[in-house]
Amino acid sequence: MGESKSGGAKTAGSQSFYAVIPAGGSGTRLWPLSRSQEPKFLLDLLGTGNSLLVDTVKRLAPFANVDEIMVVTGEAHEKLVRTQVPALPLANVLVEPSPKNSAAAVGLAAYVLAESFPDAVVGFFAADHVVSDDDAFHSVLATAIEAAKSGHLVTIGISPTEPSSAFGYIKKGKANDLSGVFHVQEFVEKPSFKDAERFVASGNYFWNAGIFVGTVQAIVDSFDKFSPALGTPLRDIAKRLLAGDDFSELWSELPSQAFDYAVAEPAAADGRFLVVPGSFGWRDVGDFASLAQAQGGAAGSEVTVVGDAAKVHPRDSTGIVVATSGRIITLLGVHDIVVVDTPDALLVTTKEHAQDVKQVVEQMRAEGLDGVL
Amino acid sequence: MGESKSGGAKTAGSQSFYAVIPAGGSGTRLWPLSRSQEPKFLLDLLGTGNSLLVDTVKRLAPFANVDEIMVVTGEAHEKLVRTQVPALPLANVLVEPSPKNSAAAVGLAAYVLAESFPDAVVGFFAADHVVSDDDAFHSVLATAIEAAKSGHLVTIGISPTEPSSAFGYIKKGKANDLSGVFHVQEFVEKPSFKDAERFVASGNYFWNAGIFVGTVQAIVDSFDKFSPALGTPLRDIAKRLLAGDDFSELWSELPSQAFDYAVAEPAAADGRFLVVPGSFGWRDVGDFASLAQAQGGAAGSEVTVVGDAAKVHPRDSTGIVVATSGRIITLLGVHDIVVVDTPDALLVTTKEHAQDVKQVVEQMRAEGLDGVL
Fold first, then answer.
1. To the nearest whole angstrom, how far is the Cα of A365 from the nearest Cα of chain B?
2. Confidence at B60, pLDDT banded by 50, 70, 90
3. Average pLDDT over every residue of A25-31
């Protein structure tokens, strides 16, 4: 890791800031666009010219140079991560020997930083989210970093734009001394649609995008206190990793838990979590229906094309076409259709079934079709 | 052309029998399976291992050896016709310099035969129809050939299995002396669905499959009498063709007319046409809905696959998938869907829109996409 800031419009103040990007998850609901070997975060999903990972790195530039960014990823993706972000120092890619869910990924980075930069502030940012208003994001993040210096963990809560049951929620509690900052009353798992409607109407709930900031010390303290089954071995694993020793056996024995469950929920109950609400055009493009929406296609309107639009010939049709095979694609009289045309696999479904793609992929895996998954 | 029969279970009697297969039409409604360069009749549409043309040739074997078969086709298809039916003598492929509709194709063969075999009986059989009961077909054809020896033209009328508005109809008149043979009262163009219901309920109408038999003399007489604008130049064209002279200019000036309109309708009105009704599992697989039906897929039932079924993974879906690209095809929650997946073009539509594929292809041609049409 780099050991010093090198210019730029840094707003994190005098304390060192590091950004960690857990880059896991396969984006199964976006198959066959997203594959296990080239998942969502490595794809130029929105046609910006960059993958979501590269967009994430660029978005953090006012706060962290590339040598102040760590990516936690799986062995299968290390090579493409390094190819896409060539300036990333060798030591800044932490490779998980096997997937162990988000708590292990967060904890690994936190304990590695605790060894090297114990006084730093660190933020965690998903590799595969979309932000359309970078300035607003930067403003909210600056507030979160400032708030984190008090020793609290600080999450960024997304002001909901609809009653979605696809996200967890953060319920705000009493106001903090800092303007625009609140205590977290609780983290709530993905609710029913009905509960989501109630949450949104109340004005007291935010979407949990998994973005949070804290001092390295506060984060490892929370692991030690609320999840010693992870914290204890992770401290050892971090030391081995930095020494260049093998840690795969210790890693394989880690419990596989979500960070929210293992650390965030008990830490919030202990009064350790703050939330900074924000609106910055955040999206988790998790399935083809949300991809169509992110590409500007309103429900029931024309056909949204991701890829080579000149090859797509819709007639009396609506939906989304992902065209990456180079073939001519003709649609006739199909509505809210999803056609994902890649060189070796084709998916035809409807927006209504966008969430069910995950189950189909799991079924195909069970049938031994790993080669195209 | 061959000049003598060579064994086999011939049932045509002592008079020579020739079979003519007009092999035109592009099967546009079956795009992108059927292409202008490789139309329906050259495809193994039903997975029998043979193209429809080759199946047609084989079906005629008890009546005509390959050297007693003539194929009338366009320049673009001559090579594949010869490749698929290698035993066809050089002179037995009549190549049209340009498409001129069915009357010119039928007349060309008739006037060529009139020069070479004026005493023969000749039958005309579409290159792209499907027959599932060959024995029944042979029995009906033997009756038609017998009836033709009286000097009448004899069509084979398909006993309708449903009130289809996709076919022309033949109305039967009074019985002929031969058992199972009737006079044709009139040929009726494709009716409305309502009229089709009436036709089928009456029991007096048959589908017009364009199959007919006659002496060479009777056919050219009818051209001379009812369509001299075709007959006169075609006599000249046939002579030039047999002499190896160019006839493309004369051909280009021929009127482009359907045989039914130019000859059959007036000949029937003149009392010259007989009909032999038959049921032999005849199908004109004209679009993807009828292809699904021919492949055994009932409406609303599972997914019918043409091609590599092992590559197709339907879930909660119904319809037809044509899989010729070798790719994995996954369907999820789509119903009565039509997916035609070829190496360079993909069509997604529904059975309901099967007939409209023709219009889409015409639109794409207007847009300059001939390369994939």
1. 12
2. very high
3. 86
Mean pLDDT of B6-16: 49
Angstroms from A301 CA to nearest CA on chain B: 17
Strands A17-23 and A69-74: parallel
Radius of gyration of chain A (CA): 21
Q: Are A154 and A272 in contact (CB under 8 A)?
A: no
| Interchain contact A309–B (C-beta under 8 A) | no
Task: Please tell me the distance from the alpha carbon of residue A176 to that of residue B119, in angstroms, as a whole number.
Answer: 107
pLDDT tens-digit readout, B227-254? 999 999 999 999 999 999 999 999 999 9
Q: Is A324's Cβ below 8 Å from some Cβ in B? A: no
- A-chain residues within 8 Å CB-CB of B345? 327-330
Which residues of A, range 5-44, sit inside 8 Å of B by Cβ? 32
| A370 in reach of chain B (CB within 8 A) | no
Q: Which ranges in chain B belong to alpha helices (H)? A: 52-59, 75-84, 101-116, 134-148, 193-202, 216-226, 228-243, 248-252, 259, 265-269, 288-294, 357-366
The domain B17-283 belongs to what CATH superfamily?
Spore Coat Polysaccharide Biosynthesis Protein SpsA; Chain A (3.90.550.10)
Look at residue A48 in the predicted model and tell me its pLDDT.
83
Q: Where does chain B hold its CATH 3.90.550.10 domain(s)?
A: 17-283
Contact of A130 with chain B, judged by CB distance below 8 Å, is answered with no
Strand (E) or helix (H) holding B71: strand B69-74
Distance of residue A349 Cα from the nearest chain B Cα, in angstroms: 5
Nearest to B122 by CA among B143, B153, B89, B82: B153
Q: How confident is the model at residue B156 (pLDDT cuts 50, 70, 90)?
A: very high
Please indicate if any CB of chain A lies within 8 Å of the CB of B46. Answer: no
What is the tens place of the pLDDT at every residue in A30-52?
999 999 889 999 999 888 899 99
Across residues A153-165, what is the average pLDDT? 95
Residue of chain B whose alpha carbon sits nearest to that of A367: B313
Q: How far apart are the C-alpha atoms of B365 and B373, rounded to whole Å?
A: 7
Say if residue B13's pLDDT is above 70: no
What would the 3-class secondary structure string for chain A be?
Answer: CCCCCCCCCCCCCCCCEEEEEEECCCCHHHCCCCCCCCCHHHCCCCCCCCCHHHHHHHHCCCCCCHHHEEEEEEHHHHHHHHHHCCCCCHHHEEEECCCCHHHHHHHHHHHHHHHHCCCCEEEECCCCCEECCHHHHHHHHHHHHHHHCCCCEEEEEECCCCCCCCCCEEEEEEECCCCCCEEEEEEECCCCHHHHHHHHHHCCEEEEEEEEEEEHHHHHHHHHHHCHHHHHHHHHHHHHHHHCCCCHHHHHCCCCCCHHHHHHHHHHHCCCEEEEEECCCEECCCCHHHHHHHCCCCCCCCEEEEECHHHEEEECCCEEEEECCCCEEEEECCCCEEEEECCCEEEEEEHHHHHHHHHHHHHHHHCCCHHHC
- CB burial string B106-135: b at 16+ within 10 A, e below: bbbbbbbbbeebeebbbbbbbbbbbbeebe
Distances (CA, A) of B126 to B20, B55, B182, B214: 9, 11, 22, 16
Averaged pLDDT, A153-178: 95
Q: Is the pLDDT of residue B51 over 90?
A: yes
Residue A301 has pLDDT above 90, yes or no: no
Q: Which residues of B touch A349 (CB under 8 A)?
A: 330-334
**Considering the entire predicted model, what is its pTM?**
0.82
Rounded to a whole number, what is the distance in Å from the CA of A319 to chain B's nearest CA? Answer: 12
ipTM: 0.81
- Whether A330 sits inside 8 A of B313 (CB atoms) is no
